[in-house]
Write a structure and sequence with these properties.
Elements: E1 9-15, H1 19-32, E2 37-39, E3 48-53, H2 58-75, E4 83-87, H3 88-94, H4 96-101, E5 107-109, H5 117-125, E6 135-137, H6 145-148, E7 160-164, E8 166-167, H7 178-181, E9 186-187, H8 190-202, E10 207-211, E11 219-220, E12 225-226, H9 227-235, E13 241-245, H10 254-262, E14 269-271, H11 279-285, H12 291-304, E15 309-316, H13 323-336, E16 340-345, H14 363-385, E17 392-402, E18 405-409, E19 415-419, E20 428-436, E21 440-445
Parallel strand pairs: 1-2, 1-3, 3-4, 4-5, 5-6, 7-10, 10-13, 14-15, 15-16, 19-21
Antiparallel strand pairs: 8-9, 11-12, 17-18, 17-20, 18-19, 20-21
Helix pairs in contact: 9-10, 10-12, 13-14
Length: 447
């Protein structure tokens, strides 16, 4: 984060976990700007530190406590008072326990209440008592946080930007805490989304990525719109590219699938988690689809958009997973031909049904299976990328990575590196791909 010399107070935000947290972190930064807070690069320079947390996996939670320990050490002996806040899903789930384990914390607020930040910060600062107590704000609010957030700022705007359209989840997968930390599925009104999209476009954004825990569950009964309608309406705006994440297979309807053929600005990339290739494991996860139903969705997508890149999520070592179950998951990789995938060892989360299940898998077995699965994913990613060797791709240029070296994204979300000059940033340029690996492409700009 770049320092803003026109402000008087330093704000340091560190986002953990999902893309939704990146969006929320940006919104908190914009929200504090009118109060003379500007971004700084270090905890030592900050008047307000916000750890924007994720609760999906156990290690993610422990990272927060480790980070708080580092912050305490960094601030030891400093003359200035720094307010420490923990936001996000760990804050929502653990509340008072956070302050109990880490008394350095001053503010705790969840993903549904971060619009209260200026108010609770002022309350904390105005506390004249000698022993300031931490303020914990995690009760679901009566008002819509998005209505309370400010307009999107133009300063430091990236070429590509997230736009949250849906939040929460009603699926209740047995391994997941999202319904308990983010609440039930809630869709933002279309008019609100359109206005924010226009603000982003006005600030120079060329690509909008629509966000939600189950983004394709978005609906607007008042305007009689579903998610495919939303994409179509946004495509009429002066934007070059549209993407969305994360989707649930049960919300991939025919209309949305056809959108990949009909809406040219919708990029040929879909992140669609399957989690396991075993129907027995999927049933125990409460995913409510079979592996064959998932494959049917992918085949239908490829029938309307043959070049579409598919990304996915996988969990290995779910309670009761047998070697046969795991091999079915491994087989899915080659059947689908993933362009990208995220894979994790199952991690029991407090309060979830899976955490109470019998037949928990030994850590050693989980680690061994994860290694094997990731080897298959790497092969799949490389096989997808090598199809583009010596081909030309339109690249939306995002940033300079080093002197005269730039990177951008292909329609398939591949990171592409090449040499050029600053005039290319924000534009779509043709790149001839000359080198590929599993994680990125390199090439030469065509003038």
């Amino acid at each position: 984060m770049n320092s803003n010399k026109n402000t008087h107070k330093g704000l340091y935000i560190k986002n953990f976990g999902c893309q939704m947290n990146v969006y929320d972190g940006d919104r908190m930064q914009e929200m504090m700007s009118p109060y003379d807070y500007g971004s700084v690069n270090s905890v030592e320079d900050a008047d307000l530190v916000i750890l924007n947390t994720c609760h999906i996996r156990e290690k993610a939670t422990e990272k927060i406590y480790s980070e708080l320990g580092r912050i305490k050490k960094s601030l030891a002996g400093k003359g200035r008072k720094t307010t420490i806040a923990v936001a996000g899903c760990v804050a929502q789930a653990e509340g008072k326990e956070l302050v109990k384990r880490a008394p350095i914390i001053d503010l705790v607020f969840g993903p549904l209440t971060y619009h209260h930040l200026p108010e609770i910060l002022k309350s904390f600062e105005n506390d004249k008592s000698k022993k300031k107590k931490a303020i914990i704000d995690i009760e679901p609010p009566d008002n819509d946080k998005f209505e309370k957030l400010p307009k999107r700022l133009k300063a430091n705007r990236n070429v590509s930007s997230f736009l949250s359209v849906q939040e929460g989840c009603d699926k209740f997968c047995t391994f997941c805490v999202v319904p308990y930390t983010r609440g039930v599925e809630t869709s933002r009104p279309y008019s609100e989304i359109k206005n924010e999209a226009l603000e982003l476009i006005d600030s120079g954004v060329k690509e909008i990525i629509l966000l939600g825990q189950n983004v394709n569950a978005w609906t607007n009964s008042y305007d009689k719109m579903d998610f495919a309608d939303l994409i179509y309406e946004l495509s009429l705006l002066d934007i070059k590219r549209i993407r969305f994440t994360t989707s649930h297979p049960n919300d991939m309807n025919e209309k949305l699938i056809t959108s990949y053929k009909d809406i040219k600005k919708l990029q040929p990339y879909l992140h669609l988690p399957i989690q396991s290739g075993s129907n027995e494991v999927l049933k125990n996860m409460n995913r409510n689809y079979s592996s064959s139903e998932y494959i049917d969705i992918i085949n239908e997508l490829k029938s309307v958009r043959p070049d579409i890149a598919i990304s996915g999520d996988f969990i290995v070592g779910f309670p009761g997973e047998t070697e046969e179950d795991f091999l079915k998951t491994q087989e899915i990789i080659s059947k689908i031909g993933y362009a990208h995938a995220y894979s994790f060892k199952y991690s029991p989360r407090p309060g979830t049904p899976a955490g109470q299940m019998e037949d928990q898998i030994e850590e050693k077995i989980k680690s061994e299976r994860l290694s094997r699965l990731q080897d298959e994913i790497k092969k799949s990613m490389y096989n997808f990328n090598k199809k583009f060797l010596n081909k030309n791709l339109p690249i939306l240029v995002e940033k300079e990575t080093s002197t005269n070296y730039f990177s951008g994204r292909s329609p398939y979300l591949q990171s592409v590196h090449f040499q050029s000059d600053n005039s290319c940033i924000g534009n779509i340029v043709e790149i001839k791909i000359t080198k590929v690996n599993e994680n990125s492409l390199s090439g030469e700009i065509l003038h």
